[in-house]
Amino acid sequence: MSTSNSQSIPVTNMMPNMSRFLGLFKSLQYPALGITCLLALWWVGGYMIEANPDLSAFSAFAPAPTFSALVDMVSSGEVWAPIGSSLYRILAGLVWGIAIGVPVGVTVGYFGVALKVTNVPFQFLRMISPLAWMPVAVLAFDSWDSAIIFLIVMATVWPIIFSTAHGVRRIDPNWFKVARNLGASGFQMLSRIILPAIMTDVMAGIRLAVGVAWVVLVPAEYLGVTSGLGYAINDARDTLAYDYLAAVVLVIGIIGYGLDTVCSVLIKRFNWHVE
Amino acid sequence: MGASISLDFISHKFSASAEPTLKDIENRIEPSELVALIGRSGCGKSTLLHMMAGLLIPTEGCVRINSHQVAKPSAKWNMMFQKASLYPWMSVKENAALGLLFDGVPKAEAAERVDTLLDMVGLSDKKNANVQSLSGGQQQRVALARSLATDPEVLLLDEPFSALDAFTRTQLQEEVPNICRERGITMVIVTHDIDEAVAMADRVLIMSQNPGRIVGEQKVGLPWPRRHMDAGFQAMRDELMQQFKGTDTGLAGRNAVESDESNVAKSAA
Ligand SMILES: Nc1ncnc2c1ncn2[C@@H]1O[C@H](COP(=O)(O)OP(=O)(O)OP(=O)(O)O)[C@@H](O)[C@H]1O
Ligand SMILES: [Mg+2]
């Protein structure tokens, strides 16, 4: 180790840090622009509402009151309870959706006959808004919570079924042949070949399902229950607390974005394709 | 130890109304024998090989391995395909150990066996690699290790080297029969390539098309290792080429086929 060497170390270490920082800045510059545009539109909208005497009662929808309401909600801690209830419902619905959707999807994708039989009914059922099941759900389940979870299941199973089935149909037939040849039992074929092979497709289906479920959850929570983000919106409207209402909308958007990000990270994690 | 394979009057139709794809195929492959099956594209070579692997059951007749009728696939009679068909979510080691995993062999023992095999096929430094990062030849070597890991009595090869570069192909054409001879494995290779047949086999079966039947066979009595430049190698190749041309459809071809058949009949008698 010479002295010249020890001098050069900070220089060589600084450079990658600098360029990484610049790279991060570059990669964030477009999203930052998008967010700025959205905020600007929101601000203009708020300004126009305030300028219009007929609408001035709604001026709390503007960015400034909304953010201050959000800060209030976070600092008082009242934001966490509705988030908790909503996340619980969506997770419970998703778990059921996966528990039903993956086995059904594998069956439909694996057996050509099952695909032909189920195609029309599934496409038909898929087109029915999950919210349309509300009256049925209320009759069938004794708690509002279960009824809402049922609606979430109705929203999540279809993308999971279709994506899983698609994944199974895409499996290289030689993978089955080689595994059979190596003496795989039916269960081993499922656990060692089929499930790992379709993992990416299942995750993609779950990502779609999460998106639909999150959108459906809020209107579902307008009904009956007294917790959750949908209820919080309704409650804020009834008490004319429009700044709180807008803050809840903001929270819904942020959490939705967060859930989607988690899904896309998981997809990358489970993806065995070489890019 | 290798197993014998009997092809007992096999005929096969893919659908009841169709012309038979295979017709009256009869042959016996001795334990540890190295056999090549040649014939034109579409004559039913792969179909016949799938039957030996238990992946397809003939509509008439049967395959017997060591006199037991083959009814389902088993890792004891293993097939290698043109595509290596490795599983990309498993490492090289895990791919090679797959048959052992299916068989319930303890992990440690499986790892040890696979380790030796991967050394043998020349992949010592790739054991933990992602299979998608391997070349075609390396992938086929993993598939070879995977087939050998379960200690097969029979190795069935369906044009396994046809997608490889000439250099790798020549190497594997030398290595695979060596491995089979060392371990006494009975080998059947399907190929389009007469050189490959001469390089790898003790005996070559020639198939005709429409319907697929075995119309000729040729002992390859050449010493090991086989050298493509040897006079004996070239004479054998020319001999096979002549017989093979006889399987051409058309009048001249038909005569040649018939004379081939009478040759087979004579040699069988
Ligand atoms: N699953 C199947 N269903 C119907 N016909 C089939 C099926 N598999 C093969 N065949 C037909 O049987 C015949 C023999 O096919 P096979 O794949 O055994 O030929 P091959 O000799 O291996 O040809 P190649 O040299 O091109 O691989 C072909 O005419 C093919 O179209
Ligand atoms: Mg073939």
Written description of the protein model:
The complex is a heterodimer of chains A (275) and B (269). Chain A is built from ten helices and no strands. Chain A is mainly α and 275 residues long. Chain A folds into two domains: 2-51; 80-270, MetI-like (MetI-like fold). In chain A, helix 2 (63-76) crosses helix 10 (242-270) and helix 5 (134-140) packs across helix 6 (144-170). Chain B has 269 residues and is α/β, with parallel strands linked by helices. Chain B folds into two domains: 5-76 and 152-268, Rossmann fold; 84-150, no CATH class. Helices cover 39% and strands 22% of the residues of chain B. Chain B has a six-stranded mixed β-sheet, sandwiched between helices. Chain B has a four-stranded antiparallel β-sheet with strand order 2-1-4-5, with helices on one face. Chain B is globular and about 50 Å long. Mean pLDDT of chain B is 85; it is low at 250-269.
Largest sheet of chain A: none
Beta fraction of the residues of chain B?
15-25%
**CATH superfamily descriptor of the largest domain in chain B:** P-loop containing nucleotide triphosphate hydrolases
Backbone shape of chain B:
globular
List the secondary-structure elements of chain A in sequence, H or E: HHHHHHHHHH
Shape of chain A: globular
Largest interface by residue count? A-B, 21 and 23 residues
Could you state the CATH homologous superfamily of the largest domain in chain A?
MetI-like
What's the β-strand tally of chain B? Answer: 10
